[in-house]
Each structure stands twice: as C-alpha cells, then as structure tokens.
C-alpha cells in the first residue's frame, strides 16, 4: 500500500460567473510510505492544489486520490475531516494557528479533536514536540507574540501532535528568512526520521534538494 496515490487527477476551479481555471491536468504519481518528497514548481504551478487534495481539503474534478489506503474521491466533507484528524498533519504557508489559544493549547487541540490519549498523555506529547521544535519555553505565548519562524515551528509541532502517519507542508518557508527556512526544512527532515511520510512544496530548488525525491510540476503538469 502506498502512502499517496494520484491517478489521472484533474482539478478545475469554477467561479460563480462560470469562468474556469484548470489547476491540475491529469497528473499521476505515487509516494512510498516513509518517503521524504519535495514538490517543486513556480507560483501558480498547482503545488497547493496537490497538497490540499492529498490532505482531503479538496476533491479532484476527475481522477482518483488515495491516501494511506483510503480513496478520498467522493467522500463527504464531514467524513474527510474525521479521516484527516487521524491520518494527516498539515502545515500551511501562513501557519493557521488559532490566535486565541496559547502555543501549548494550539498543539493540544488536534489531540483533543482526535481523542488521542488522556489529558496527561496529551500534555506529555505536547511538551515533547515543543521541545523538539525549540518552543517549549514559549508555551504560554499567543501566536501574535511570536515571529513568523516561531509560528511555523509551532505549526509543525501541531501537525505532528495526533501522531498522523503523513505530514503535508504547503510552502512552509515562503514568508521566512533564509535562516528560518533552513530550520523549518530541517524539522520536516526530523519528522521523516520519526517515521512519517513527508511531502512539502517549495519553489526553491535548494530547499527541494533536502528531500530524497523531487517531483517537479509546472502549469498543472508533472515534468
């Protein structure tokens, strides 16, 4: 069983006015369990769409998407949300931390939603993950009190919180300086060493090269 399979996947967005935009044009690829893969392409190439489809946030217009042995095609939004809590951790480009929760509470939240462990186990895991990303000392801070790099490190800890087998990261370094870009990619490499299948998107070839495999995409087509 593969971690991720895209089979002749098309994604067409339609505006309320009827205009169409084709983001993906019949792409097919597979990712093995435990692999570390970068998705490399320029802005507008379809990278985010691939991440969102693999995470069950969106559905393909045509074709099939299978993740961790589950065919996501045709699943309801509620069913995908329930599936995602146990199977996929997603790191977004702009962090998406809950602004009214502290760093610690943000990391605890996915475990609570997934009903992972008891309170003590959740706290222990949250501490371990925040120490891994170097943010335990700022556990009582709110997202607005953190730098961009710090917020993204918390976002990675949150993605790992419920112990999902797959981590997806959508341009996780796009808004960061060079030093923090390297830190974030290093954390994704560490997540892979913990046994996670990791796929991250980037437009930077030097960051893509940190992965064991590079998938190149341009204009919705794999190169």
Structure description:
This protein has 223 residues and is an alpha/beta fold. It has a single domain, classed as 3-Layer(aba) Sandwich (Rossmann fold), CATH 3.40.50. It has 7 helices and 10 strands. Helix 3 crosses helix 4, helix 3 packs parallel to helix 5 and helix 5 runs parallel beside helix 6. The chain starts with a strand and ends with a strand.
List its salient traits.
223 residues, alpha/beta, Rossmann fold, 4-stranded antiparallel β-sheet, 10 strands
Helical content (DSSP H or I, runs of 4+): 25-40%
- CATH topology name: Rossmann fold
Number of helices: 7
Share of β-strand residues: 25-35%
Poorly predicted sequence stretches spanning 5 or more consecutive residues:
none
Main pleated-sheet profile: 6 strands, mixed
CATH superfamily: P-loop containing nucleotide triphosphate hydrolases
Report the span from N to C terminus: 25 Å
CATH class term: Alpha Beta
CATH architecture: 3-Layer(aba) Sandwich
Q: Helices and strands: which structural class?
A: alpha/beta
Rg, alpha carbons: 17 Å
Task: Report the strand count.
Answer: 10
What is the domain total for the residues?
A: 1
Give, in spatial order, the strands making up the sheet with the most strands.
Answer: 6-7-8-3-9-10
List the secondary-structure elements in sequence, H or E: EEEHEEHEHHHEHEHEE
Average pLDDT works out at 95
In terms of topology, how is this protein built?
Blueprint: E1 4-14, E2 20-31, E3 36-40, H1 47-54, E4 62-67, E5 70-71, H2 77-87, E6 88-91, H3 103-113, H4 119-132, H5 148-160, E7 166-169, H6 178-193, E8 197-202, H7 205-208, E9 213-218, E10 221-222
Parallel strand pairs: 3-8, 3-9, 6-7, 7-8
Antiparallel strand pairs: 1-2, 1-4, 4-5, 9-10
């Amino acid at each position: 069983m593969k971690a991720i399979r895209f089979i002749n996947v098309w994604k067409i967005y339609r505006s309320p006015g009827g205009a169409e935009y084709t983001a993906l044009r019949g792409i097919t690829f597979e990712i093995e369990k435990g692999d570390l893969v970068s998705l490399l392409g320029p802005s507008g190439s379809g990278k985010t769409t691939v991440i969102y489809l693999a995470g069950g946030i969106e559905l393909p217009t045509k074709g099939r998407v299978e993740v961790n042995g589950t065919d996501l095609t045709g699943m309801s939004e509620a069913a995908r949300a329930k599936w995602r809590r146990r199977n996929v951790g997603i790191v977004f480009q702009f962090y998406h931390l809950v602004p009214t929760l502290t760093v610690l509470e943000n990391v605890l939240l996915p475990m609570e939603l997934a009903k992972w462990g008891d309170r003590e186990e959740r706290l222990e895991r949250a501490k371990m993950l925040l120490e891994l990303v170097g943010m335990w000392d700022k556990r009582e801070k709110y997202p607005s009190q953190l730098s961009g790099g710090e917020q993204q490190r918390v976002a990675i800890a949150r993605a790992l919180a419920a112990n999902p087998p797959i981590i997806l990261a959508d341009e996780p370094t796009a808004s960061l300086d060079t030093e923090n870009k390297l830190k974030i990619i290093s954390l994704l490499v560490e997540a892979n060493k913990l046994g996670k299948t990791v796929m991250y998107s980037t437009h930077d070839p030097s960051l893509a090269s940190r992965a064991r495999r590079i998938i190149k995409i341009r204009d919705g087509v794999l190169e």
